[in-house]
Amino acid sequence: xxxxxxxxxxxxxxxxxxxxxxxxxxxxxxxxxxxxxxxxxxxxxxxxxxxxxxxxxxxxxxxxxxxxxxxxxxxxxxxxxxxxxxxxxxxxxxxxxxxxxxxxxxxxxxxxxxxxxxxxxxxxxxxxxxxxxxxxxxxxxxxxxxxxxxxxxxxxxxxxxxxxxxxxxxxxxxxxxxxxxxxxxxxxxxxxxxxxxxxxxxxxxxxxxxxxxxxxxxxxxxxxxxxxxxxxxxxxxxxxxxxxxxxxxxxxxxxxxxxxxxxxxxxxxxxxxxxxxxxxxxxxxxxxxxxxxxxxxxxxxxxxxxxxxxxxxxxxxxxxxxxxxxxxxxxxxxxxxxxxxxxxxxxxxxxxxxxxxxxxxxxxxxxxxxxxxxxxxxxxxxxxxxxxxxxxxxxxxxxxxxxxxxxxxxxxxxxxxxxxxxxxxxxxxxxxxxxxxxxxxxxxxxxxxxxxxxxxxxxxxxxxxxxxxxxxxxxxxxxxxxxxxxxxxxxxxxxxxxxxxxxxxxxxxxxxxxxxxxxxxxxxxxxxxxxxxxxxxxxxxxxxxxxxxxxxxxxxxxxxxxxxxxxxxxxxxxxxxxxxxxxxxxxxxxxxxxxxxxxxxxxxxxxxxxxxxxxxxxxxxxxxxxxxxxxxxxxxxxxxxxxxxxxxxxxxxxxxxxxxxxxxxxxxxxxxxxxxxxxxxxxxxxxxxxxxxxxxxxxxxxxxxxxxxxxxxxxxxxxxxxxxxxxxxxxxxxxxxxxxxxxxxxxxxxxxxxxxxxxxxxxxxxxxxxxxxxxxxxxxxxxxxxxxxxxxxxxxxxxxxxxxxxxxxxxxxxxxxxxxxxxxxxxxxxxxxxxxxxxxxxxxxxxxxxxxxxxxxxxxxxxxxxxxxxxxxxxxxxxxxxxxxxxxxxxxxxxxxxxxxxxxxxxxxxxxxxxxxxxxxxxxxxxxxxxxxxxxxxxxxxxxxxxxxxxxxxxxxxxxxxxxxxxxxxxxxxxxxxxxxxxxxxxxxxxxxxxxxxxxxxxxxxxxxxx
Length: 1011
Ligand SMILES: Nc1ncnc2c1ncn2[C@@H]1O[C@H](COP(=O)(O)OP(=O)(O)O)[C@@H](O)[C@H]1O
Ligand SMILES: [Mg+2]
Fold this sequence. Notes:
By secondary structure, the protein is of the alpha+beta class.
């Protein structure tokens, strides 16, 4: 199971230096000697029967192949099963695994390993229904082998029927059901076996395995030699072990398997009774006695007790059984029935036909019973998704016996059909792949067996058709006449011959044998019994007898027994035609699926371990077409790999691709890699795959990879250590960070618990410095906190104060940090001229004037009023008063009862200019007017700070009206009066008693009493 070294030979025959039989055999032999029984040809698996238990199977091995690509592990059946399973699961394709090879080559064993693999890798969710299906799938083999397998000279456990098993999967890839098709059971084996062979296992198992009491109930004796049908194989056992115990343990295993599958106890008892009945039937013999007066002799059964047994075991009336054995009912036109007595020969023939038919129906019933358990139930594709199928075909291999009969013809025809399919699919697939990948393809010669298939199955002329014709002809047609007919039809066929056509060939007997050159070798068939076997005739009396049995299990096997004898039924299809039809259907079914092939080879004829008979194998290699397979596979290209897979395997051999490439595509990277190795001439680039012409290229790449792997392993080990350390560091960092964040948040919470306390609402709380990761979070929090705090504060302000707050906010917006003192901490009175404290002497006069103005201009509110010192464009300074209402700016004369000197509409005011100092200079700019230059003051100035108030009140008012007020802060204010531009600035002067203006050289100076 370990990786393979070069001493084990080439794991893929495609890698051979030359494709010759010698090289092929040498590799096969070398691998076989090293216990490597599996080798690929591309995706086809060649398997050699080891005839010994090898440590290749079981759960551990299965795990190694699960989810791997075909080439990643040494060749194995599991890899093929896995490939089929993955194709099914990934691409929702139906797939099939076709296992072929001659009898004893290991086909059935292979199919069992495939099933085990599939059972092991499915149902990870442990659904009971899936487990049940898997149990039945695995156990069904054991039951089918008991009834359908027998010891032959080629294989001690030879399948005497063909088996095709479908396993249905749901969209998750779990098996949810299955179906078994069985093909052509070799029922003649019930009657007779070659020397060294046995009847079907089931008979011996019942005889050797049943308890004494049950055996007595079946009227059986333990010794198989007592019964005609089992006498031949009585001294032989299945595998060469101790006789009885072996058979008994098999018997118990089958009983257990039947129980697990779901056979009911009474069904199993019926099965045993039917087997016993067949054995008794086999011992019935007929005596013909002369009786006077009768032209025909009188026929009777030699041992009547046997009839009793058969009647009892089949639960049918004794007289009827006897009548069926000795005579038959014939419908002679109309509704008249005649009972016609058998001759001794006819009776024996009828008895044998009966025994065969009973056994065959039993076998078919077992298969259908298993199917009924495995059937997928209640599936609705719209609800459950599409089901997919993996089919496993384990069908009888090519057979040549000393005497070959109708069954061998069928079996070998089946193998021809499968070979056809193999050729078709392998070639077709190959061709399609080249086309898909855009690569030119060249054809390879190989032997096409289509003509042999034609020889057998062709309508009207083929062997089966000629046989059918013989069977349906009126009069007595003998096998010999059939042979003559064959000779006439196929005289010139290159694959057909007979003694008649080739009189010198003494290996064939005259009038009895014909020979077909099959793709796998020549087989001489004896025509004796062909017609009978093909007709497969069973008297209706007998069918009716079985149908009328009171054993429901037996009765269920004979539904056709209910037909009335007088019903003129159509001639039933012959055995050959039925078989041909089933083969055509099978091949069609397989062709619709994605195929995987297992080609089994039998190493020697003696079933011994560790011996590979070269001649024997060479023959199989030849007829299986394995060399052609290799050639087709290599036609042009020995190997192909999708670009990503190729890179994965070889990227370490090139600096551009290790550890990861930076090229535009995987294809480009592969190209760079190959160029570095100088191998670009030996490959072709498909759309998705790289095609490699000669195996040597692969070998070169493999070698260079092998050189680098130990270094990479070392590197990886080191990197892994470093990676671990780094990972530890990161973990610590992560935890530390988490701790810091938590600690910070806890601290915030602690500090801000007091934030709800009025009146400060957390104004003095200090935000702790956050960890870097929390900085944005904290910024947001701080902003949120400010808003929250503002809201708390604003909430507590009485509505009467709101106007003042708004004005102060407006003032702050324009003056904050630009002007030293804007009177923020003081209550803003606004209308100073009306205030008795501020204007004790003249507030009364002003009130009168205000009244008059209100009547005249009907303003709403006084925004601001104050005494000012004013300078005009003639450089004259005067005391005046300023009044701002919501409609006008008035200049008043305080000396003359506040008479209005000028009124300007408030909308005309565009801005204000103030200085950054403590002085009370204000310049009012208005559209279409001279700028008004004033210094606000009370009558006694030193604590005056009303500039901010004027700015704030006006700004808030404008804001409310939705227009902008331009406020400029400058220590040298430009102004314009009647078109002349002048400047005004402030000069602090300690000795100045009251603020006043001075004019010199076209500029104003406000002399401000400082200190
Ligand atoms: N992989 C294997 N490992 C061990 N023994 C095997 C293996 N394959 C086949 N055999 C042996 O060969 C015998 C015949 O194999 P079987 O599968 O019945 O052949 P086929 O079905 O091709 O006629 C088996 O009974 C078994 O003893
Ligand atoms: Mg088999």
